[in-house]
Prior knowledge:
Structural class of chain A: alpha/beta
Oligomer: heterodimer
Helix content of chain A: 25-40%
Strand content of chain B: under 5%
Number of helices of chain A: 14
Strand content of chain A: 15-25%
Order of helices and strands of chain A: EEEHEEHEHHHHHEHEHEEHHHEHEEH
Strand order of the largest sheet of chain A: 6-7-8-3-9-10
Largest interface: A-B, 26 and 20 residues
Distance between the termini of chain A: 32 Å
Number of domains of chain B: 1
Structural class of chain B: mainly alpha
Low-confidence stretches of chain B: none
Radius of gyration of chain B: 21 Å
Helix content of chain B: over 70%
Largest sheet of chain B: none
Order of helices and strands of chain B: HHHHHHHHHH
Mean pLDDT of chain A: 90
CATH superfamily of chain B: MetI-like
CATH class of chain B: Mainly Alpha
Number of strands of chain A: 13
Mean pLDDT of chain B: 89
Amino acid sequence: MIQIEEVTKRYGxxxxxxxxxxxxxxxxxxxxxxxxxxxxxxxLRMINRLVEPTAGIVKxxxxxNRSIPGYELRRxxxxxxxxxxxxxxxxVAQNIATVPTLLGWEKDRTEAKVEELLKxxxxxxADFGPRYPHELSGGQQQRVGVARALAAEPNVLLMDEPFGxxxxxxxxxxxxxxxxxxxxxxxxxxxxxxxxxxxxxLADKIAVMDKGEVVxxxxxxxxxxxxxxxFVETLVGASERPFRLLGIETVGEAVExxxxxxxxxxxxxxxxxxxxxxxxSGRSALPVAAANGEILGRVTLQxxxxxxxxxx
Amino acid sequence: xxxxxPNLFRLAVLVVLLAFLLxxxxxxxxxxxxxQENAPAIYNQGSLFWLTVxxxxxxxxxxxxxxxxxxxxxxxxxxxxxAEFLPLSRSLVNIGQTFPPVAVLxxxxxxxxxxxxxxxxxxxxxxxxxxxxxxxxxxxxxxxxVVEAARGAGMTGSQRLIRIELPLALPVILTxxxxxxxxxxxxxxxxxxxxxxxxxEVIIAGLQSNNLAFVLQGGLIVAALAVLIHDALQGLExxxxxxxxx
Lengths: 312, 246
């Protein structure tokens, strides 16, 4: 658990972060969104003390993060940034081994961990381990950057626009990978982005920052239904709201008894994608299948349209 | 890669240089037309080979000392604690560069006497600037995300310096060393005006006895050394730059 209590950061007369209080539950993904200059990156960097707060306390699992030296704290917290920041003079394997080496892990343990992570990120250890970062594609570099952040098995992973430099197709793949990895390790992730789509896609909870303050901290659904301020409403995108709402829920939640023609859609598909499929194929209902192929029922256009309406 | 035309040319220069230093008599016929009757065509007041070794030794010691001092200074002023010394260090090394080596010799001789010491001081001061400026550039133009990542991974200040900053800045630092070495190779010749054992001795002897062959062979040896050392260091820089991929 991460508790941010009344944290303020001032540079001279400018207040960048102003009295922010946030509690992040363990094993969840929290996304901090906001326009540039809203203080979101500064807030993130105060968690691992790359920036020292002017006032306030950050507690990690109940312990003040100033109780140990900054560099030791940072070895315990994963940190991945935009543009990956891989060390250009070190191989992929050496890059991933950075924190384990700093912590003085035994060679065998480090090597095993590097191999495990490379496999997890779908990179062949024998092929990619000895390569240099410049020999990788943008998407591969980004994956190695995240693997490096996870190498010492941190409970907490901080990510500063980690997918900002990727093209849309690779980005959505990277987001899927991140979700899978978060489930695999149960890591608590705090991610900063200015991309609302990304926020809704990844977040268990979203914190919206504006002018150094958190204006709303809520689940994606809540944020859509009850935006706290006009700023949040604008950020969410008024015309996007029904689609975002459908994007959060899966077809499984909207399934009803009955049958329909055509190829079934998986129950984990988002309702938004189901709507898209319904509209494109000109049908009014689709069969829904479980992962094992069993038909669970159907999802109708009518039901989805109803679900897209503002909840009362 | 090894046998490209420029490399073959460099090899040829090296072979001719070594032959000239070890068996100067072979080249006597070529140089005789340049001298007046009965004057020697090959320097005869000492071994050319030993003068070259001593010349290189002087340059090496001076450059080594300048590298250690300039790089240390650049490291100090690029740390947070030493940032305020940046303008001061800049002025100091600039003075070192603008003060003519001849003037340094003139000032150092009364204190240290004739011989190698005044030359070493002059070359050391003269060589500081290129190394310092390059080290400064190398250490301040590192990719910001890389430095940020090193900090975020939990490296201490000295770990960042040794594991990340210096290896990445090394090719640029080496460029400074190369400039300094080439300048020093030429400048070292004036050390012979205060009795330092360098190739300047050959040139000065030629000037004093109006012997064009002496002047020419002293100058050519220095030039050949400068070209060969320059290219060797440049090759090393390229290899290193290839390794750090920046």
